[in-house]
Every structure is written in structure tokens, then in C-alpha cells.
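As a warm-up, study this chain.
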Amino acid sequence: MAEQDVLTRLFQEHRPHLRAVAHRMLGSHAEAEDALQEAWLRVSRAEADAVDNIGGWFTTIVARICLNVLRSRHREEPLDAHVPDPVLARLDTPDPEQEAVLADSVGIALLVVLETLSPSERLAFVLHDLFSLPFDEIAAVLGRSEAATRQLASRARRRVRGARPAPDADLGAQRAVVEAFTAAARGGDLETLVSLLAPDVVARADGGKLRPSAVLRGPEQVARGAAAFGATAAPTRLALVNGAVGAVAVEGDRIVSVAAFTVSGGRVVELDTLTDPERLARLDPAVLDA
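Now compare it with the structure written out below.
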């Protein structure tokens, strides 16, 4: 019983890291939690006495489970319109727990690109480039040679780098763009909206099974869509969405939409809006309160 208690404590200590691995692999909070539950069942039934690197062992178990999920996944919504689950925090002075969550999050735009990779490419890229796992350990998870695993990660890396320009790092500059955009959208100011959008801007709206989903491209289309959405949207507040400045609409005690902005060169290059009631219901608006 004592050994099981130690294993339980160690798994709980590694849980935030394992949740981050699963979320980056799957882009879904619910699926990530399911993966961790399955991982714990496997861990609790295994013999851990001979394990030298307990954290690496936990990670590879979670990775194998996530790989199986990706290989069997079937989405109801079109992939082009799919927006991964966001990670939210207050914009100003998040508490230490929120800071830890944000440190383990990546931008929505990167998660969107990861959705386009094959399961093996995604696992190789996430485990090596985002979590620095050695290629020999990743190869063991994939059942491939180390050389083949390196090629998978390299191919994924090229696709990720070629997908979008790097976002602006200055949160203050991001905030100015997002504030101007949300004000223009609510006021129906198409000229200002167009001026804030990059020429190749892409906007995704993911309504899940219950609401419409769409992909808009180009400043004019995106501006018109934003103005139409802003005219009827609930009041929004700025927040950190996966570590970048975004906008969250709240009605009463529930979140009704989350907009993730990717700002590069002072303009919005990507706008990803989640309006799926089922997934939004899993987000806690209390994390936005001061």
C-alpha cells in the first residue's frame, strides 16, 4: 500500500505537466482529462520498481494513449473550422496557478496547425520540440527507428514554421490591436476593421454541433463577419487566451464565446472564435475574475 501511495503522489505531482502534454497532443480539455485517467489506470496496474525516470515513463504512457486517440479520431465539424479548446487567464496579474497553466500552454494558432499533422508527426513534434523528449524515447512510442522519428519531427517543424508568421510578443501591443478590433466590431466600423487585418487574414468560427461553423478569408470577408458577430454578441472582456490577448464574452455565469487573436506586425493574421456551447460549458468564468 505504501508503494501505491508513493506512485499516486508522484503521478499527482506530474499531473500538470502530463495535462499539458495531452492538451498539446489533442487540443481538447475533455480528451486530455480522459487520457490522464486512462494513464493512471495503466500506471496503477504496472510495476514501477525498475523505472529510472518516472516522469519520462508517465509521459510516454500519456503519449501512447494520445496517439491512439488521434489515430481513431473522427470529428463531426469540418477540420478547417475546428478551434482547439482554449486556456484562459486574467489579462492583468494572473495568480500563480494561472501563470503555471499559461506556462504550459501554446497559442491557438499553433494548435490549429498541429491539427493538420498526421498523428505520428504531431507526436514527434510535440514531444521533441515542445517537451524536449529524446528521439530514442519517442521512437519507442511510435515503434519506428530513431532516424525515421527525426524525419517526422523535421517534416512537422517545416509545416509549423511555414504556416504563419511569428506573433508579436509585446502583450501591450497585442492589447491595443484587440481593443481597437473589438470596439470596431461592436460599432460596425468596417473601415477600421479592415485596417487592423492582414491581407491574408483567416478567421475560423467553431460552433460545434449546435451552432454554425465557418472559415472566412481576406480582410473584407473577415471584417463583415466580425461586424455581424459584434452587433449581437454579449459584452466581452479582454483576457489571456493561451498566453495571448483575446476576448471572452460572458453572459451571467457562463462563457458564450472565446476569441483568440494572433497579431503579427501590428495586424490580426488569425482570428479563432469558439462558440460551441458544449465545450464552452467546461470553461470556468471564475478564472477571469480579479
